[in-house]
Amino acid sequence: MVRVGIMGYGNLGKGIECALRDAKDMTLTAVFTRRSPETVSIQTAGVPVCSAEEITDWKEKLDVLILCGGSATDLPEQTKQYAKLFHVVDSFDTHAKIPEHFAAVDAAAKETGHVAMISVGWDPGMFSLNRLYAEAILPDGKHETFWGKGVSQGHSDAIRRIEGVKNAKQYTIPIEDALKKVRSGEQPELTARQKHLRECFVVAEEGADTKKIEETIKTMPNYFADYDTIVHFIDEKTFAAEHSGMAHGGFVIRSGKTGLAKEHTAVIEYSLQLDSNPEFTANVLVAYARAAMRLSADGVSGCKTVFDVPPAYLSDKSGEELRKTIL
Amino acid sequence: MVRVGIMGYGNLGKGIECALRDAKDMTLTAVFTRRSPETVSIQTAGVPVCSAEEITDWKEKLDVLILCGGSATDLPEQTKQYAKLFHVVDSFDTHAKIPEHFAAVDAAAKETGHVAMISVGWDPGMFSLNRLYAEAILPDGKHETFWGKGVSQGHSDAIRRIEGVKNAKQYTIPIEDALKKVRSGEQPELTARQKHLRECFVVAEEGADTKKIEETIKTMPNYFADYDTIVHFIDEKTFAAEHSGMAHGGFVIRSGKTGLAKEHTAVIEYSLQLDSNPEFTANVLVAYARAAMRLSADGVSGCKTVFDVPPAYLSDKSGEELRKTIL
User: Fold this and answer.
1) pLDDT range class, residue A153, cuts 50, 70, 90
2) A280 vs B320: CB contact, 8 Å cut-off?
């Protein structure tokens, strides 16, 4: 049994706890938190909740630590630090900073012979894999990624920082016409506005100037100015009842040309439709925790991404069984 | 430059020739045929067409041989034979006989330290990969594979063997309602009849009993009896004009449950829509020819499937470039 620890017990950490129940070859061994451990109660009987500060004591008692912190400030510090103690898996998702994160984690993990899987989840993660496979198979082609319908945390936060806003949620919605064009194989050039719509649900403070809030949202550079944005003002009760979900999803579509005169079109499409974004992400992290153990058993160490992992290493079945049943 | 040979110059072999034009790191070095080489003309200037019997002379002049024969009689002999001379890639697609083929090829390839990639293409191949990834990520779930709309060679052949039939083509068509149910996450139990429809276009010989032909098709065990089958009789001119294409495609869909009480649904869908089935299959084979070279450079030998290959090995880009651009 692979002994798994969870660092951070937010939505993702809770998802890991659930996901481990379906993994017959792994067991949840401890949960670590920066809060006072006695204030955190988990769903698995008999598993200790420990202070993050005690983690060094667990060096011999855990095989893999799954890091459930955020990409802005937690993971850039945690992943390289904990890769010195355990095999680790993170979901670092700041695409532009992946090379930097990779280098730092790689050095730390190699020092102690651990495997550190970074940027695991669905984007980066499964969507990246599909971009890679599709590009390798259809080199003469073009891919597009669409996100949604789902909540963008960053955009929701940006709205909440506006004066007079009490609460807000922003949904990213792929535009059907753009999806249709990409699927047709015509390889259109699409602007940000043509690919996604942004729909916002805002709870304003009493007496706030909603006209001004709406204007501020719609003209916000980077976040909203380049998109068609719809703003709805709703009351707190409606917000709580209708906008507490964590559904998400998206599409990776590549079309390419084949044939002597490039006369044929091929379209590859991968899509996800998720009631719970953090739970699905957790499931991906758990599969890659298994893979980290397999890589380590092969003598591999250092930082790895989904691109480096033989697919069979994600499964608890043997190669023989996989060839017999699903190849 | 990886020196690539093609064994067999039918639709798949021609597809490999086209696909290699998009591979900057590979070059077509020779084409082998069992026909008289002087009767075979290829599309690439300066590349020799040789008799299959001469292949041993090419031992030092080729790196990878891509096998483009059929699964019924060619590949069970060829793959294990040629794996003693080169790294090889085949598209062996008799699912039930994969374990047997794997064992024979593995022994041959290991003897001489070659890498032999078998069952590469889209099913087995990319569809298998997607069944594996989806099952590993959503262990509490169920997947379905749908094929089409596209031509089934085996079913077309079966019709052509009926007395009074001059020519025939059979299209496998996934049933929209079944797709919808599977996508909804409800995990229905579907019979063969509920998943696919079979549509046949038949050219009858003059004076043939078309009523009897139709009856024979519709009641043919294994091939048609378990399906709703539509039979059209058409003339030869229409057949040539409308049914010479090689389009195909299909869907792999898995839905699964996440959450503490399994209260959330996640749906993963992968689909292909191909104007040319053999050309797309060829593109997949070429990407795995590259991967075979990479595995060999790692010191790997023996029989491998798509399950064993790190995705990055399919790409001509470096790990650094992949992490920077598409992760």
Assistant:
1) confident
2) no
According to the model, what pLDDT value does residue B224 have?
97
Residues 273-292 of A with CB under 8 A from B: 273-276, 279-280, 282-284, 287, 290
Alpha-carbon distance B57 to B49, whole Å? 13
Residue B153, pLDDT score: 87
B chain contacts of residue A305, beta-carbon cutoff 8 Å: 323, 327
Task: Using the CB atoms, write b or e for A28-43: b if 16+ within 10 Å.
Answer: bbbbbbeeebeebebe
Residue from B255, B251, B308, B307 nearest B135 by CA: B255
* CB B181 within 8 Å of CB B140: no
Distances A180 to A143, A146, A239, B152 between C-alpha atoms, Å: 13, 12, 32, 27
Q: Taking residues B220-247, what's their average pLDDT?
A: 96
Q: What is the pLDDT of residue B132?
A: 98
SS3 state of residue A241: helix
Structural contact between residues A117 and A92, judged by C-beta atoms closer than 8 angstroms: no
What's chain B's average pLDDT?
Answer: 97
A133 touches chain B (CB under 8 A): yes
Residues of B in contact with A324 (CB under 8 A): 98-99
Strand, coil or helix: what is B296? Answer: helix
- Give the pLDDT band of residue A219 (cuts 50, 70, 90): very high
Looking at residue A29, its amino acid is T
Secondary-structure breakdown of chain B: helix, strand, coil percentages, each rounded to the nearest 5: 40, 30, 35
